[in-house]
Amino acid sequence: MKTAKKMTLTLPAEELMACGHLACQGCGATLAMRYMLKALGQKTALCIPACCWAVIDGPYPYSSMDVPIYHCAFETAAATATGVKAGLEMTGDAETTVVAWAGDGGTFDIGLQALSGAAERNEDIIYVCYDNEAYMNTGIQRSSATPYGAWTTTTPVKHFKTRPKKDIVAIMAAHRIPYIATASISHPEDFFKKMKKAKDIKGTRFFHVYAPCPTGWKSRPEDTVKLARMAVQNAYFPLYEIEDGDKVTLNLKLKDKKPVTDYVRIQGRFRHLTEAQVASIQAEVDARWERLLKSCAA
Amino acid sequence: MKKVMMGNHALSFGAMLSRSQVIAAYPITPQTQVVELLSEMCADGTLDAKFIKVESEHSAMAACIGSSVAGARSFTATSSQGLALMHEMLHWAAGGRHPIVMGNINRSMAPGWSIWTDQNDSLSERDTGWMQYYCASNQEVLDTVIQAFKVSERLMIPAMVILDAFALSHTYEVVYVPDQAEVDKYLPPFKPAIRLTPSDPRAFGGLTGAEHYMELRYKLQKDMEKAPALIEETGREFEKMFGRNLGLVDAYKCDDADFVFVTSGTAGFTARVAVDELRRSGVKAGNLRIKVFRPFPFAKVREVLGKVKKAAVVDRNCSYGAHGIFYQEVKSALFGEAGVPPVFGYIAGLGGRDITVDTFKEVAAHALAKDKSDEEIVWIGVKK
């Protein structure tokens, strides 16, 4: 008979997000929020622009969160967070961590100017982009974070997206901000550790968090964590951090890098792709991975 | 202390004396000196505030909204295209009930590029829920910033303090700068009942269904309706402390007048000279300068114009497809009242074209020759 193992919790049990939120089943963005708050704690203020999370926390007058939220305009997450931080400091609160929490549309597209401005000024905020690779809240329209090959309601199968995803991490690295990290809901300990680290850094910190969306990806809700894990293990979404714009550290080395085929084939949004098209995704992932390894070595 | 200063610096001094805590601004001609001086004041410690040098006016207003909801007194300044870029955030600031005070230098909208004055920039924002004060002197600019913070923070409604490009923004006048200690007595620190803080975690501005939205807007309107009385009350209080009254309107020789100009901004002071000249030639003229446009002082306008025989509204703006905007409001104020005078509408001075004493004489000659205006808009000095 096996001896009973004592379970060790790798994340704090404290929950700052309650049940009763309005997310879809299997929402990756919801897990991302939970993990972030576990790392940052209650002394956190959120600025959330138009995105799924503008709805998820609950309608007025309810909120499923134990931290304050300012719902801001679509393109203003970084600017609003900048103002909140300044306002809190001027009223004697230098301690609260101010987070701009935006989707990929609010980050890669409409909010990029305000984000670039805040990063260039090195505002003392954490900016988190939870990336579900399209405008999901408005009903699955393509954003510049939508990857090559994906179906969305504005990139129909006959005209699927043929341009690659915008490299937001490289754009942020070009601002030479103190800290950038990618993170995945499939690797909560890694996410938690990096968020803890970021909390103690002063200046602009940027997180790119991979957050699968069953509704938009046409995947099964129970596959959300699995898809996120596959994307890490096949280098579709590698886990790494960049300090001061150029010190790149790979957080998870891939001894046995998986092919992208399985990951692509369990998502309805890629169903129309031919073998050759999937092969071209593989080639693109491989090239990006090589570039990343090179930048780590440099 | 007496100081010779430009209108833009009167805005800066007003923001400084009000102890603004966060300033977020983006440069635009003819506003730049406002924020240049404020950034110097922040840099040398004259003003204990954070100055956020944002990358656009849209972000300027977004940052002010953020700092205001965190509980800090927040100020910005802009003009024309910058104000238009802020449009979305103006609704946000008012709808969110953030009592930000903003200087706006009235500058014409492009195209063609114009840096000179008219009022279409600020008047295009009349329905955003902001209070609007139109100033006619540098002294009034400085004083109004301080008053505006007091009124805004009481009602939790933002306000624009507006001045004409160049005619005021770059014109130097003698300004009495009040003592900081006195201003502190007049304007207490900003202490909102509810603010964004982890010690009282709330969600601001979330998804609001039809069962709540209308009530929020009803409350905004109801509080806006309290503003005229509050502006007069705080204006009298200001007069007691500083000797200068800040009211809703400035009526010049209207008491016994038969014929009254209705004006706003610096044109309101030019009109006084025309009034004096007309009186010398036997016309009992007067001038009603409307200082506060939002909320519109309907009662005051009725009170002054109800007694006169003719009113001529001179608009430095145009609502295309309709009329001059002050003209519309004045007519609306008088509509349905018994014995109200005929109202004549004039448009002058767009794109920085000067409004001079002769402009008013031309207006008077036109209005005095007729019993009733035969056109809704009479353009003054336009090459047809």
Structure, explained:
- The complex is a heterodimer of chains A (298) and B (384).
- By secondary structure, chain A is an alpha/beta fold.
- Chain A has a single domain (28-297), classed as 3-Layer(aba) Sandwich (Rossmann fold).
- Chain A contains eleven helices and eight strands.
- Chain A has helices at residues 28-40, 53-56, 77-90, 104-109, 112-120, 168-173, 188-199, 214-217, 224-233, 261-265, 275-297, and strands spanning 44-48, 69-71, 97-103, 126-131, 179-184, 205-210, 240-243, 247-250.
- Chain A has an eight-stranded mixed β-sheet with strand order 2-1-3-4-6-5-7-8, with helices on both faces.
- The radius of gyration of chain A is 19 Å and the shape is globular.
- In chain B, strand 15 (343-347), helix 13 and strand 16 (378-379) form a beta-alpha-beta unit.
- Chain B has two domains: 2-242, Rossmann fold (3-Layer(aba) Sandwich); 249-379, Rossmann fold (3-Layer(aba) Sandwich), CATH 3.40.50.
- Chain B has a seven-stranded mixed β-sheet, with helices on both faces.
- By secondary structure, chain B is α/β, with parallel strands linked by helices.
- Chain B is globular and about 65 Å long.
- Chains A and B meet through strand 1, strand 2, helix 3 and helix 5 of A and helix 3, helix 5 and strand 9 of B.
- Strand 2 of chain A pairs parallel with strand 9 (203-204) of chain B, so a sheet runs across the interface.
